[in-house]
Specification:
Blueprint (H helix, E strand, L loop, with lengths): L2 H13 L2 E2 L12 E2 L3 E7 L13 E5 L2 E7 L3 E4 L2 E4 L9 E2 L4 H13 L4 E7 L7 E8 L5 E2 L4
Length: 148
């Protein structure tokens, strides 16, 4: 099995979804079918190294904040995968851009606008995968995480 297909299969199993098997790869659709999440998988050398940290990372680009977490640091609570927030540092790292991440999340959101977009990343020879999503803020500046 090709590595990118295995990543999609592993992500589907991890989140309790189903890998979408496509006959026509020009079809624009989610990689993994899930009731609440729009899951997009990215595999290969083109995945930037900052997207595959060994520990959970909170970082910001402009006024947007993102979390990247190895899948092993996500816990199952009441049947849902949530981030072990005790592993996060308090101060977000600043980045000039996160184009690869934001494009992956936008791609997931375009496929399923009514679901929470989540991107999963893996580089060659890496064990497991990393899960990334954006933190959303309401008008009261209170941060809420729509966790996978």
């Amino acid at each position: 099995m090709k590595a990118w297909k295995k990543l999609e299969k592993d992500v589907a199993r991890f989140f309790g979804g189903v890998r979408r098997v496509r006959i026509n790869y020009s079809e624009a659709c989610e990689d993994v079918l899930h009731d609440q999440l729009a899951l997009e998988c990215k595999y290969g050398k083109q995945v930037p190294k900052y997207l595959v940290p060994d520990v959970p990372v909170l970082f910001s680009v402009g006024d947007r904040s993102f979390i990247l977490s190895p899948g092993t640091d996500l816990l199952e609570v009441d049947g849902k995968r949530v981030l072990n927030v005790g592993l996060l540092g308090l101060v977000p790292r600043k980045r000039k851009n996160a184009t690869f991440l934001t494009k992956a999340l936008e791609q997931a959101a375009n496929y399923a606008p009514d679901k929470t977009p989540v991107a999963c990343f893996k580089r060659p020879n890496m064990h497991g995968f990393v899960v990334g999503w954006e933190l959303k803020c309401d008008n009261k500046k209170k941060t809420e995480s729509r966790q996978p």
